[in-house]
């Protein structure tokens, strides 16, 4: 199986031109799948794999309480692998076609309230190079609704601050242009003038946000910064980078922005991914209901 997985790596990188993180994710899922197939189903060659072998693997994931979302992601990698095997004529059929997607659980994203966002942003300081960078990263993440991978991979050439815009390279190497607000622009200008020149030292590259060694800050690095700043601000929720993105979308929806525009800002390919934010409790919904429903006056006031 190792030989086929190695060829699959070349296919993902060379022909599909997928991002490195996506390639590694697919390979990890396929390696786990093929290990199961060899160890528990006694299949040594892809041509020997049957539909029931894939189903057995998915059943094993359920027994391990792997979420339906993770199961669906792993199945996407498995299908991609079998499609590759069939296209390259390593197999005579694509057995993964007969497998249906697992039913997805409706899991609502956790968001910060507008008050919590204000509390977080207002607590951020600018009294050191590191603090200026931290404030700039958090401001930009919330202002633009970025994925953590998009944030840490921003480059100075992506900024168009006079126009109030930044270029973002999203999933599948798809580029989008996102507006950025004045507060985030002002913090970025401070970072670019006073912090980044100190952090980059003698190195030469275009990455925007840098660690103490002058290199591109990692996703784990930003997660730790954000977690620490949330605690310092007195916020009870365990803040994650994706929570800022969820909050960005939720707050725009609360303020009446069209769902299609939010989809574009987030870089979602499918509107159904964005629609999950319509299920989050909206404070305006109750107010509208109480004003509109003929029997709403019967409800006690809080």
Structure commentary:
The N and C termini lie far apart (63 Å). This protein is 56% helix and 4% strand. Helix 1 runs antiparallel to helix 2 (20-40) and helix 6 crosses helix 8 (182-200). By secondary structure, it is mainly alpha-helical.
Number of helices: 13
What is the CATH superfamily label of the largest domain? Intergrase catalytic core
Radius of gyration: 23 Å
Quick one: overall form?
globular
Q: First CA to last CA: what distance?
A: 63 Å
How many domains, in number, for the residues?
2
Strand share of the residues?
A: under 5%
Strand order of the largest sheet: 1-2-3
What is the highest CATH level, the class of the largest domain?
A: Mainly Alpha
Fraction of residues in helices? 55-70%
How would you describe this structure in keywords?
302 residues, DNA polymerase, domain 1, hpI Integrase, Chain A, three-stranded antiparallel β-sheet, 13 helices, globular
